[in-house]
Amino acid sequence: MKLTIIGTGYVGLVTGTCFAEVGHHVICVDNDAAKVKLLQSGGIPIYEPGLEELVKKNVAAGRLSFTNSTAEGVKKSDVIFIAVPTPPQPDGSVDLSFIERVARDIAGAMTEYKIVVDKSTVPVKTGEKVSETIKRYCKAQVDFDVVSNPEFLREGFAVGDLMKPDRVVIGVRSQRPVAAMKEVYTPFNAPIIITDINSAELIKHAANSFLALKISYINAISILCEAAGANVEQVAHGIGLDERIGRRFLNAGIGFGGSCFPKDLSAFIKISEQVGYEFKLLKEVQRINSEQMERFVKKITDTLWVLKDKKIGVLGLAFKQNTDDVRMSPAIDLCQRLQKEGASLRVHDPKAMDKAKSVLSNVTYVDDMNDVAEDCDAIVIATEWDEFKKLDLDRAKKLLSHPIMFDGRNLFDRAEMEKRGWVYKSVGR
Ligand code: UDX
């Protein structure tokens, strides 16, 4: 099929590339001229495992191209996907101005029937607004359909999530766009769910809020475990084997972050409020998440006492492993809290150091994780990178003034660490 994706952020770029990979012809549009130039010359603006090879392969095969022109994308395609940012506003509600702008641009370029698909995460009823906008601004007054098709990809696993989705949700107002949408997704061999537009929009916020709830739930259990002398990992394993619960997203730690969960939770609370329901459960999810960070910082100050003039080595800056993304990163939040207490920091992240430099200053960026402990009073693990498990613990012990580790992601085995002579504090065990 001939497809256009407007917006080449995480969602747009990975979606467009995977659509090309299964054989569709894809035009990716972005209004950032520098980004388009970079993509046209074979560069990738984000770190996402497996993406660069796929982009190169599909550009070479002539199935994937990049342009600044929305009009070109609209003219040359049957289905146009909107994948632009929907950032939060100060009151937690969603800024839909990019969506509105793109809807007008698409409307202005339409001269025949098109399917306009919203992939960005948007509040329920946005589809109706997009539809009204296109109708108002389409001079040619041609037929069109608006479809909601939320994206569930996780950063760091985006290519895999796209190529093998758990499900594809397609929200429609009429049957007319269904066959084309099925054709887009048939190569992915995933269950396709056809719903109304409002339900599809709600599914996205409801899914992300539920996952955030799961994390806050296990973090609350971790507090209980610490108080009662139990082990949160054993509890997570024990409850997770119940298929109705599932083990995934039951890792206790310093809380969730990133560009989705915090934003989607606030938005969902706001959306609920707007339709007359106070979603107190989700407010509690947010509260537990920030309390989790405070409790971890307290663990550090309880042990090290005064942080002024202390040096701490921090492993991890990204909001989770396998990404260079530091937006709303708990690791960055933790660093800033430690700095506020007067600590000086040596920090390392396998991928996120460049991006961290714009939000975290007055720290020493260390290239090798095994050098981070030099002259430090303690090490802190802030992101769940697998490679941190390979930290040279004997070397770290020699470099530190005292072998103290605060493991905010439970990467190491407590009994083993204590046997090796570490003062080891983790979460919920
Ligand atoms: C999330 C959703 O998973 C995805 O479906 C949606 O489309 C976008 O939002 P993402 O933000 O990329 O994806 O990351 P995710 O892997 O979900 O992790 C989010 C945060 O939760 C991270 O900070 C991570 O460290 C934290 N987390 C995750 C935990 O603290 N414990 C867990 O068990 C899982």
Question: What does this protein look like?
Answer:
The protein is α/β, with parallel strands linked by helices and 429 residues long. The protein folds into two domains: 2-190, Rossmann fold (3-Layer(aba) Sandwich); 210-425, Rossmann fold, CATH 3.40.50.720. Helix content is 43%, strand content 14%. The protein is built from 16 helices and 14 strands. Helix 1 packs across helix 3 and helix 5 (97-109) packs parallel to helix 6 (126-137). The mean pLDDT is 97. The structure holds uridine-5'-diphosphate-xylopyranose. Uridine-5'-diphosphate-xylopyranose (UDX) binds at residues 151-155, 208, 211, 215, 249-251, 253, 256-258, 260-261, 319-320, 330, 384.
Radius of gyration: 23 Å
What sequence of helices (H) and strands (E) makes up the elements? EHEHHEHEHEHEHEHEHHHHEHEHEEHEHE
CATH topology of the largest domain: Rossmann fold
Tell me the domain tally: 2
In the sheet with the most strands, the strands line up as 3-2-1-4-5-6
* Uncertain stretches of 5 or more adjacent residues: none
> Average pLDDT across residues?
97
Counted by DSSP, the helix tally is 16
Which class do the helix and strand fractions yield?
alpha/beta
Termini Cα gap? 52 Å
The dominant shape is elongated
Chemical compounds bound to the protein = uridine-5'-diphosphate-xylopyranose
| CATH homologous superfamily heading of the largest domain | NAD(P)-binding Rossmann-like Domain
Helical residue percent band:
40-55%
Query: What proportion strand?
Result: 5-15%
User: Main sheet, how many strands, which sense, barrel?
Assistant: 6 strands, parallel
